[in-house]
């Protein structure tokens, strides 16, 4: 009898990763193996029909899978990405269109103050409204020791990972009606930080507080806010400085499921939280860590 069970230990790539590296910000199309991030086997059920979404960092990794998943559930989607990621962004846009939805491409560098707010306004103009906001864009660069951590890197990491969220939420909320949803991407690093990711982990901890507090602020407006905390996930972040090159081979093998997660696996959590299935869920942090607890 076929019961559709899938062994989580072996469902996706569970061997060592080949040695590789890319210049920041990296491209998903050049990774070996390519992340499972196209939601190829996912069938939508109209959970987000008639809604418009903005997903930052939507060209690759988790953001890409979320954008495609939203489209398959009936949403039109705008994605933000760095100009250097144009080729990945175009690939994502084609998959959104293949799902029968509108795709809007919005290149922007959140290291520059003011860009996040501009992206919101452009998304609203192109889509006509905004019901779903996924703030997922991030910088992750490993550094061995605080004495080697430049303040320029600290500035850039905080600008992209957390300050842009304040700017974007401030710009988006006036456009959002009751029933709208804001989702943020935190990380296992926000709860169990790695010494080599001092600045990144600090921003991810800040995102937890920001998200819970924003949920309290926006509840009277009927806007839900939740955060997702992925564990080690195979994305371009890892191969362009997010992890030391010599640590990539066994990336993710330390968690209970003994492998790195894939973007497709994480996107389902965002889809649930964005939909009416999660109408009584706000101010929460959902872990998708491969095992480690976040509470």
Automatic annotation (TrEMBL):
Keyword Oxidoreductase carried by entry: yes
Composition skew (Basic and acidic residues), residue ranges: 8-18
| Region named Disordered | 1-35
So where does this one cross the membrane? none
What Gene3D superfamilies would the database entry show? NAD(P)-binding Rossmann-like Domain
User: Which controlled-vocabulary keywords does the entry list?
Assistant: Oxidoreductase
Q: Which family does it belong to?
A: Belongs to the short-chain dehydrogenases/reductases (SDR) family.
Protein known as: NAD(P)-dependent dehydrogenase
According to its UniProt entry, this protein's organism is Lactobacillus melliventris
Q: What is the lineage of its organism?
A: Bacteria, Bacillati, Bacillota, Bacilli, Lactobacillales
